[in-house]
Amino acid sequence: MVVQSKGRVAARRPSGAGSQTLISALVAAGELIDPDSPRGRLLNAAARLFDQKGYARTTVRDIAAEVGILSGSIFHHFGNKEEILSCVMQQVTVYARVRMAQAVEAAASPRERLRACILSELEAIHGLAIPGFSILVLEWRSLSSQNQKKVLRLREDYERIWHGAIAAAKGPKSDAALIRRLLQGALMHTYNWFKPSAKGMSLQQLADEVLNVFSPQ
Amino acid sequence: MVVQSKGRVAARRPSGAGSQTLISALVAAGELIDPDSPRGRLLNAAARLFDQKGYARTTVRDIAAEVGILSGSIFHHFGNKEEILSCVMQQVTVYARVRMAQAVEAAASPRERLRACILSELEAIHGLAIPGFSILVLEWRSLSSQNQKKVLRLREDYERIWHGAIAAAKGPKSDAALIRRLLQGALMHTYNWFKPSAKGMSLQQLADEVLNVFSPQ
DNA sequence: AAAGCTACCAAGCAAGTGCTTGGTAAGCAA
DNA sequence: TTGCTTACCAAGCACTTGCTTGGTAGCTTT
Fold first, then answer.
1. Rounded to whole angstroms, how far apart are CA atoms A46 and A109?
2. How distant is the Cα of B188 from the closest Cα of chain A, in angstroms?
3. Cα B67–chain centre separation
4. Residues with Cβ < 8 Å from B93, sequence gap 6 or more?
5. Potential cystine with B107: which of A60, A142, A172, B113 (Cβ 3.0-4.6 Å)?
6. Tens digit of each residue's pLDDT, chain B (217 residues)
């Protein structure tokens, strides 16, 4: 076996000012599932496990154990295992978009807005805001094409923000779609090598470095 | 189920002038396993399947069926399933290094050498030269840390070539290690969106675009 | 010819997998 | 009180998984 790590991990909730009320608002608006409901708790547990061990190596028994129920009881809340993955991805997508939109809005200049996008996605990837964001890329192939379409539709707005920020920062004649894709890969891959630590680089510093590579000066 | 595609796929051998003799030389030198031996044929089949469906979703029965033997017979050649993955990664690493070294050597200027690195890795990622290269990243977590170390040691020279090419092209005060990591992520992610086609962009054009983003002018 | 090696088969085991079934207890509404 | 809904349990089914075992045919070496 691989991907060690077992035993219950304390649920890491998004921390930071306002994230709680932001979630509540989204729940009230029906855009997000209440994380305190049985479904919500299962989705959070699934997100963490899929993130740690991967979808295929996570069993429904693992997920059930995380919230303290038996495996069969999961299928009272979800039709099958893949529906859990699909729901996780949809939740993550919605929340990531709202969060990034806020960060971009708070930025002053075009360059600052691009930096906000980069930092926002870095935070998501490294689990500081949205547990399970990396699943969107890492486990994309585990989703049936039908469910992929659903998530892709939800993702359109997210990508629109990115394209706008890139075009504004790098000029209209730059290929925003291409740069976004290169950036997405570069940022996602930090998941595999970057470890935020007290001594080393912070996520903010990393965001600056990335910004300087993709948009020099 | 997901990741459709079944049925035997014709073995796609690396094509291109000299690749055959290059392989033969590496086999003779004991650096590569003969692709016509039972072990070699199993490794090639495994590489394709791991690439298509992922390691966890590929069964030893799948691999065995690809080469026309029964599943149990696999364990005459490999101790366990993970050893197959480890061997595939080692084979891929060795071959990718030799290939890239050749491409870099043939290039004239520092900028051309960086382009050669980019194109070489793009070709590897998209299966034009080395079936299974993407496994190195996509299935990294499926490897035990002990086997990870083995592959990492083999990979050192490969990364050294990259760092040299980046430093030469972008100046010694650039952070070659960081840029390499961003590039690796950006290039690997093309696996998810770039489809070389007659109408659209070629890999060569893509390499040029990437070069211009990471090393403008 | 004898001995050993390589490459496989045939059969199956033990563990784990997603998911189903029938039932129960608690809360709430009529 | 009655009936409905939500959230779960207990048990297990049907299937898949990696891997094991004992054996055999053919080739090569001595």
1. 38
2. 7
3. 21
4. B136, B151, B154, B155, B158
5. B113
6. 333 333 333 444 454 556 778 887 887 788 899 999 999 999 999 999 999 999 999 999 999 999 999 999 999 999 999 999 999 999 999 999 999 999 999 999 999 999 999 999 999 999 998 889 999 999 999 999 999 999 999 999 999 999 999 999 999 999 999 999 999 999 999 999 999 887 889 999 999 999 999 999 8
Q: Quick one: tokens of A149?
A: 């379409």
A92-127: b (≥16 Cβ within 10 Å) or e: bbbbbbbbbbebbeebeebbbbbbbbbbbbbbbbbb
Half-sphere exposure of A68 (CA within 13 A, CB side): 4
Place of tokens 């086999």: B27
Q: Is A193 within 8 Å of B209 when comparing Cβ atoms?
A: no
Contact indicator for B92, B31 with CB cutoff of 8 Å: no
- Give this prediction's pTM: 0.90
The two three-digit tokens of residue A4, written as one number? 């060690």
Chain position carrying tokens 């070709």: B123
Contacts of B187 in chain A (CB under 8 A): 185
HSE-CB of A205 using CA atoms within 13 angstroms: 10
